[in-house]
Amino acid sequence: MVTDQQVRRLFMLNGKDKSRTTAATKAGMDPKTARKYIKIGKLPSQIKSKHDWRTRKDAFEED
């Protein structure tokens, strides 16, 4: 899982380094993952959707 700090570092290094692969390696992530975050331009915390559904019925809920 990639953190916001890693993606911020990727954004910073992407402008300085000649290669996205080098920037991704320095940020500590796979180049494919780096490509994804550079393309969308958002942090992981901004992308993540809230989990608001239940996987099973609440046993303590009254009918």
List the helices and strands and how they pair.
Blueprint: H1 4-16, H2 20-27, H3 31-40, H4 44-47
Helix pairs in contact: 1-2, 2-3
Give your account of this protein's structure:
By secondary structure, the protein is mostly helical. It has helices at residues 4-16, 20-27, 31-40, 44-47. It has a domain at 4-46. The chain is built from four helices and no strands. Helix 1 (4-16) packs antiparallel against helix 2 (20-27) and helix 2 (20-27) crosses helix 3.
In brief, what are we looking at here?
Helices cover 56% and strands 0% of the residues. It is built from 4 helices and no strands.
Tag the structure with descriptive keywords.
mainly alpha; 4 helices; rod-shaped
Terminal-residue CA separation: 39 Å
Instruction: Give the class from helix and strand content and strand pairing.
Output: mainly alpha
Strand content: under 5%
Oligomer: single chain
| Total beta strand runs | 0
Spans of 5+ residues with little confidence (pLDDT < 50)?
Answer: none
Give average pLDDT, whole number.
92
What is the approximate shape? rod-shaped
Tally of alpha and pi helices: 4
How much helix, percentage-wise, in residues? 55-70%
- The rounded Rg comes to 18 Å
| Major sheet size, sense and barrel closure | none
* Element order: H for helix, E for strand: HHHH
